[in-house]
Structure prediction request, 253 residues.
Amino acid sequence: MTGTSRSPAAGITSRQFPLTVAGTGVVALLALVGSGVAWDGKPTLRFIVGVCITLLIVSAVTYRSLVRARAVDGAQLITVATWVTIVRGGLVTAFAGFVFTDPPGGAATWVPAGLFATAALLDAADGAVARRTDSVTEFGGNLDTEIDALLVAVGAVTVVLAGTAPAIFLAVGVARYGFTAGIRWRRHRGLPVKELHPSQFRRATGAVIMSTVFLALLPVPGPAVSRTVAWFVSVPVLAHFIWDWLTVSGRLG
Prediction:
């Protein structure tokens, strides 16, 4: 082995990773500038700190997605579809600032819902672009899944703290992280993990959760409606997560 060999992680760090993080940061900055136009109070220090923390989280998620993709499928390209996902990461980063501050007033009341809705709608765009251009990549798929989960989690935390969704909805927001953590724990213990069969309900769950968050972020129709809807969504979604866990853990056939 020569002294000039490089690990896959080193190659990623020197090329794709800084580029994707820079793209995420630029999108987040542009979103903040646009939001500031409508926001009379302007982003507070707590808001900016929240954005910076989320940028670090998105950066870590991006790095992990790159490393996993390269281990499975070799060198990874940043395709047009992946750039759409990176834009979504920047929007999530800007939106996350609202977790750390009170909802803005005036015209800016619509800003959180606008940022969230744009990030959610682009979820359909990145997959469509990847299929249309025949540029589906392991990295793009991994990153898309991670950004979806982060968007749902941040959205759930935001609306629960704002009082427009019940506390149980927070469990919906982090259910995917708990589910994957449980699978890793079973594999670490050497316990069997069964595969899940495709489910139409599971496919629709993400869209239903995002729609519920969007409703709770809107100034109208108000907390009474959004809290009720969130309750009706939370019960079947959490029940299905429990059912899937019983399946992968072998307790159900």
